[in-house]
Amino acid sequence: MIISELASTSGTPAxxxxxxxxxxxxxxxxxxxxNRTEYTEEHAHRLRLIRAMLEVGRLxxxxxxxxxxxxxxxxxPIAETFEVAQRxxxxxxxxDTSAPSARALDRVDALIDRVGWAADCHDNVGRGIAAxxxxxxxxxxxxxxxxxxxxxxxxxxxxxSADLTAVGELADPSDMAELMVVGTVLGDxxxxxxxxxxxxxxxxxxxxx
Length: 209
Hints:
Distance between the termini: 58 Å
Strand order of the largest sheet: 1-2
Oligomer: single chain
């Protein structure tokens, strides 16, 4: 397909497609003579992935480039690709937030140990993000009890199990890596939306004022 057809298929303006090519996010099309350049369904798929990370995941162009570079390494371990996606999303969600306090980090570390998560989880990028949230609650006048943190950890464990189950059902390693990245980037938006619905349901069920 030519660029106008790719633009129509993907819902991405031709000028934006050319920009993505210049930025290295999208492979260049194949020159087939004169000014004619051919694109394939692979280009359309990559464009849909870029738009999802940009519009839903709210990642920067630079972060998207890092995620795509990880995806384009077929020999990269799944865990490594997963970490790249986590760190990209962390920069997007916590870029303007101050560093967490030592006390909040200690509380998250205690939570990790209390629920029995692996020792290397203390080095995960999520540790700082969770600690920032603990600080924000405290600054708003609400000191989170351990029971609240434990309940969130339990919910997070079940969501993570769902993520890994979905990935494990795929046979192609490249598809597994891609779902790992997409699930990490877009899963937060899915969790946010479902949490809002669940809050409305529970509020109605408990008849809170």
